Amino acid sequence: MITNLKQGERLDDLQIKGYEIIQHPGKFCFGMDSSLLSSFVRVKSQDRVLDLGTGTGILPILLEAKTKGKHFTGLEIQEESADMARRSVLHNHLEEKIEIITGDIKEASAIFGHVSFDVVVTNPPYMIGQHGLKNETDAMTIARHETLCTLDDILRESAKLLPFKGRFYMVHRPFRLAEILSKMVTYKIEPKRMRLVYPYVDKEPNMVLIEGVRGGNSRMTVEKPLIVYEKDGSYTQEVLELYQPK
User: What are 68-71's contacts with CB under 8 Å, separation 24+?
Assistant: First the structure.
């Protein structure tokens, strides 16, 4: 079955379990960060997972493909993106495993209730301030800049949504790492595992993957660096392996 596409949309092959996703190249398409986060997240068989700011639903779809989680929910404030996500869920026949909700991250705990998920994941806007801002309502701007939600909003709501020992996962930028770790501790989501992602072995890291535990003890493991590309621009073997189901 081919889902009805709206003007400007395309259907992209996710190269796992035959799944495909609807995207609009003129809006915002998922990138390497979501793919790497989906492989970093640890989901158990009975876990209920929430993706804050799901966009077109890439993380719930990839996590359903790669893990044995019980149910996956995506929360997205932009109705156009949420609509694409819902149609992708239907297209892949995943409506019993994935639900997409239109709503504001700042109100997530009110929408779902406290202690309602075992795992919270997020690929949030990375940029702060006015740097590079052109249109605050533009889909790409909302996805990249903290115009509609901040790091504090995400951590505050995640702390309310998770039970004691519930797990939080995020991909972000290393230039904000000190702020991220400090604020995670403030909201009692203890940083437990971290991995820096390097585009090439001789370049600076451009992503950081972080796991936190609600109410966890103060001890963090820093995993070995993840290198994305070989010198010739091809993916490293480890990155290729990360695309496979767990």
Answer: 68/43, 68/44, 69/43, 69/44, 69/45, 69/119, 70/45, 70/46, 71/97, 71/98, 71/99
